[in-house]
Amino acid sequence: MKKRDMNRDWIATASTLSQALPYLQRYTGAIVVIKLGGHAMGSDEGMDSFARDVVLMRQVGINPVIVHGGGPMINALLDKLDIKSEFVKGKRVTDEKTMDVVEMVLSGTVNKRIVQAINRQGGRAVGLSGKDANLIFCEQTDPELGLVGTPSRIDPSVINSLFSDGFIPVIAPLGAGDNGETFNINGDTAAGAIAAALKADRLLLLTDVSGVKNDQGEVLTELSAPQIRELTENGTIAGGMIPKTETALNALEGGVRAVVILDGRAPNACLLELFTEHGAGSIIRL
To answer: Is pLDDT of 90 > 70?
Structure first.
C-alpha cells in the first residue's frame, strides 16, 4: 500500500521525472555504450546504484552496452600470485602467463560481478568478451608489449541480436588474433571501437575524474574536436586524460554522435548526463 501523504521529497521526485520527459523521448531507441573503469566500480553499493541506472535506461527504451576494465583487480591478482611484470615505455608487457590472469579477471570475476549486479536489479544482462561470436579481431599493438591488441575488425551482430531479445551486453575487453591468439585491449579503446561499429548515440567514459579540465582545474563542460587537439598540444590535457580524449576523437570520427568523460563514482552519473539539462562531465563533439 502506498502512503498517500505527500512531502517535499516526493514532490521533487515527481517534478524531476516530469522535467526528464523530453530527454526520455529523445533517447528512445538510442544506443549508449558505457565504459566502466576499474576505479569507477567502487563498492557493492556503488555497483548496485550503477546497475539500477542501467536497468532504468533499458526500461525507458535505451539500448545500453557496458564495456568494462579491471586494471586494479588484475594488478591485485598478479601481486597475489607473485607474477612479476615487465614494462616498456611505461606500459605493461602482457606475456602468456600474464594473459592467463588478465582473461581470468576480466572474463570471470569482473564481468560476472557486473552481470550479477544488473540482474539483481531486474535487468537481463549477458556477459561476453570480444572473443565471443567473433566480436573483436585484433592486431598486435607493439611486439615489445606482447599480447596487447588494437581492434582491427568489429562484428556487432551479436550485440544487435542481444538488443532484439531485450538483453544488456556486458563486454570484457579481450579480442582474438587471426592466428588464434588472445589479446588484451585497453578498455577505453575497446569501448570506442564498439561504439563506432554500432554508430552509437553516446559513448560514456566513466572514470575517476570529473571531466576534462582547463589550466585552472575547472571542468570544461562542452568541447569540440579542434579544442581537444589544441588543449593536448599546449599540455593542458596530459597524462591519463590523453588516451581518453584520443578514444573520444576516434569514436567521433567513426560515427559516434558524442562522447562524454565523467566521474563514474558520482551517484547516478549516467542518468544525470542523459536525462538532465545540465548533464555531467565533459561532452565532446566533432
So the answer is: no
